[in-house]
Design goal:
mainly alpha; three-stranded antiparallel beta sheet; 8% strand; 167 residues; 6 helices
């Protein structure tokens, strides 16, 4: 089994153990402070609630859920350390401005490391920090699932659009 396959199996096992994808008993979302215990000592306790409007975890979640951030994490995970231009080619369609903003946000959040090598001209390389590797391992299965299910979702969209065309 490759390292990537082992990581995928571990991520799926953890998601299963945590009940990801299952609705809590009694239906609906559990109130803040209830539910599962933190997975590790470094995981914040139940006082943080991504659904609460003013919770700081919500802002972080929104930044991470940005399509460019997810794709950057996946690219760095799959291809290893990359220069800016390599990342821009790898993440098709991202502008220089959006790539710069996303990389800064990921670096600020402790997910990506920016290393400047003292050469002429300076060489800058981006890589994942441990927290970024952990998140990329969680995001990669979502990317693979999306690739596998894209046909079904596109067909559902066409069916929906046809049914609601007269509107």
């Amino acid at each position: 089994m490759t390292t990537e396959e082992a990581a995928r199996v571990e991520v799926e096992r953890r998601a299963e153990d945590a009940g990801v994808g299952r609705e809590p008993e009694g239906g609906g979302r559990q109130p803040a402070g209830e539910g599962r215990a933190p997975e590790s000592e470094s995981e914040p306790g139940p006082e943080l609630d991504v659904f609460a409007q003013l919770c700081p975890s919500r802002e972080l979640f929104a930044e991470l859920a940005d399509k460019w951030s997810m794709l950057i994490l996946m690219s760095l995970s799959a291809c290893g350390p990359q220069r800016f231009s390599e990342l821009q080619r790898g993440v098709g369609g991202v502008s220089r401005k959006m790539l710069t903003q996303s990389l800064r946000s990921l670096e600020r959040s402790g997910l990506v490391l920016r290393t400047v090598f003292p050469e002429t001209p300076p060489r800058v390389v981006y890589d994942l920090l441990p927290l970024g590797r952990e998140l990329a391992a969680l995001v990669a299965p979502l990317g693979r699932w999306t690739e596998r299910r894209a046909g079904q979702m596109l067909a559902a969209r066409e069916e929906f659009d046809a049914a609601h065309a007269g509107g």
